[in-house]
Amino acid sequence: MKGGLVSESGAVLLSERRPTPRADGPDAVVAAIRGFISHLAAAGDGVPAGVGLAVPGLVSADTALYATNLGWRDVPATAFTALDIPVMLGHDVRTGGLAESVLGAGRGIPDFLFLPIGTGIAGAMILHGEPYGGASGWGGEIGHIPVFPEGEQCACGQLGCLETYASAASVGRRYSLRAGLEGVRAEQVVSSDDPVAVEVWDEAVEALSVALATYTLLLDPTMIVLGGGLAEAGPALFDPVRTRLVKRLAFRDAPPLVPAALGVDAGMLGAALLGWRAAGRPELGSGWAVDVRPEPLVS
Amino acid sequence: MKGGLVSESGAVLLSERRPTPRADGPDAVVAAIRGFISHLAAAGDGVPAGVGLAVPGLVSADTALYATNLGWRDVPATAFTALDIPVMLGHDVRTGGLAESVLGAGRGIPDFLFLPIGTGIAGAMILHGEPYGGASGWGGEIGHIPVFPEGEQCACGQLGCLETYASAASVGRRYSLRAGLEGVRAEQVVSSDDPVAVEVWDEAVEALSVALATYTLLLDPTMIVLGGGLAEAGPALFDPVRTRLVKRLAFRDAPPLVPAALGVDAGMLGAALLGWRAAGRPELGSGWAVDVRPEPLVS
Question: What highest taxon heads this organism's lineage (chains A, B) (predicted)?
Answer without folding.
Answer: Bacteria
